[in-house]
UniProtKB/TrEMBL annotation:
GO terms for biological process: carbohydrate metabolic process; vancomycin biosynthetic process. Residues 295-395 form the Erythromycin biosynthesis protein CIII-like C-terminal domain. Residues 3-139 form the Glycosyltransferase family 28 N-terminal domain. This is Uncharacterized protein. Signal peptide: none annotated. It comes from Actinoplanes utahensis. It comes from the Bacteria. One of its GO terms (molecular function) is UDP-glycosyltransferase activity. It holds the Pfam family EryCIII-like_C. InterPro entries: EryCIII-like_C (IPR010610), Glycosyltransferase_28 (IPR050426), GlycoTrans_28_N (IPR004276), UDP_glucos_trans (IPR002213).
Length: 411
């Protein structure tokens, strides 16, 4: 079967699909990942086919979100939807072009517009999501809040978000369906059709981290993590190997694709926290251009988390889904510093799992608070013990199995 994965977003939204794609390929399927040009090397490096999608997520996220400054979860989610909606027509055209050579579509949340393409081409499709999106009474919608709203409130809020999230796309969807020869359909009717058809969704995170809600339908599956494809030829740069060998395990600090208005000020804050805690650190420059200097701090570009994290004493990160998963897999304590969208949700999950002393929302980050959290994370053995236990559980899971089951069932 020719499988097309539509992966829209930043690095953390794309990287897990290199691993899932490799697993599908190993099972005998031909796999193409349609994503942004920025990620073509990682797709081809996993020996998967690549199809370009419009939108430079690094440029758009950095310019639009940095210009607006720090904001709440809901406002950031709305702004991200507007960014995607501005590119909806060319995105749909690119998905259609790629789908003409496919037998099945696997769609990430930001690639949901592909359901209309699949309908027009009479292709089976399914969701492959990295964040919980299906409404439930058990927790509020992960993309907008961590505040419990009560059972009915949690479910209502998530349902409302699914409807409201389509509003910026209404004009583009209407035009796309007209181009495809499909009849018009409203958002409520479209969502109802997906439910009635038992449209499958596989969630690429562990049930150890977020247990499957009891009120989810049985065509929604909490599958387990899809780890990014490993590079068997990777060797660390000499300066990294030398730094690690020169002293005790350092902590990792990196905020991935998060944009900052002033990366220099954030870098200074991080260095002050490290001095207060008396710790060595590997700092990932990321999209914000973080930097550090001195014998106890090494600044690096992207390094494979599966290689780097097990060599760290703790990880400070933005609590993106992918980095959260990598830290848990490595079995090390975390200090999450969530910024926006689903990150507070994952930060709270880390706290519930007992692998972090406390999440520190970015707007509340200070050198003193970070230093205190790092001291506890690295000095209290209970965090490491709990993290080691979680890592052992994750090692026994097979996150791609549920996806393979659904895909093979569509043959």
């Amino acid at each position: 079967m020719r499988i097309l994965i539509i992966a829209v977003g930043s690095r953390g939204d794309v990287a897990p699909f290199t691993g899932l794609g490799r697993r599908l390929f190993a099972a005998g399927h031909q796999v193409t990942v349609a994503t942004h040009d920025l990620f073509e090397p990682s797709i081809r490096g996993a020996d998967l086919d690549f199809h370009p999608l419009p939108l430079d997520t690094r440029e758009e996220l950095t310019e639009r979100l940095t210009a607006e400054g720090a904001r709440g979860q809901l406002r950031t989610t709305v702004e991200f939807s507007r960014i995607l909606a501005a590119h909806a027509r060319p995105m749909a055209a690119a998905i259609l072009d790629a789908a003409r050579q496919a037998d099945m579509l696997l769609l990430t949340p930001a690639g949901w517009i592909g359901t209309h393409v699949a309908e027009a081409l009479s292709l089976p499709s399914m969701g492959v999501y990295l964040q919980p999106m299906t409404p439930t009474r058990e927790f509020p919608p992960a993309m907008v809040t961590t505040r419990a709203l009560g059972g009915r409130g949690n479910r209502w809020a998530a349902s409302a978000l699914l409807n409201l999230g389509q509003r910026p796309f209404r004009t583009a969807v209407a035009a796309l369906r007209d181009d495809l020869g499909l009849p018009p359909i409203g958002t409520t009717a479209w969502l109802a059709r997906l439910r009635a058809s038992r449209w499958p969704i596989c969630y690429g995170y562990s049930p150890t981290v977020v247990p499957q809600p009891a009120d989810w339908p049985d065509w929604n599956h909490t599958a387990g993590y899809w780890w990014p494809a490993a590079d068997p030829a990777f060797t660390p740069p000499p300066e990294v190997a030398d730094f690690l060998a020169a002293g005790p395990p350092p902590v990792y600090i990196g905020f991935g694709s998060m944009p900052f208005a002033d990366g220099t000020a954030v870098s200074a804050l991080l260095l002050a926290a490290l001095r207060k805690a008396g710790l060595r650190a590997v700092v990932n420059s990321g999209w914000a251009g973080l930097s550090g200097a001195g014998g106890d701090v090494l600044t690096v570009a992207d390094l494979p988390h599966d290689w780097l994290f097990p060599r760290m004493a703790a990880v400070v990160h933005h609590a993106g889904a992918g980095t959260t998963a990598a830290g848990l897999r490595a079995g090390i304590p975390a200090v999450p510093v969530p910024f926006m969208v689903d990150q507070p949700f994952w930060a709270r999950r880390l706290a519930l799992l007992g692998v972090t002393p406390e999440p520190i929302p970015f707007r509340q980050l200070t050198a003193d608070r970070l230093a205190a959290a790092l001291t506890r994370a690295t000095g209290d053995s209970r965090y490491r013990e709990r993290a080691t236990d979680i890592a052992a559980r994750l090692a026994r899971e097979d996150g791609a199995a549920a996806v393979l089951h659904v895909v093979n069932g569509s043959l």
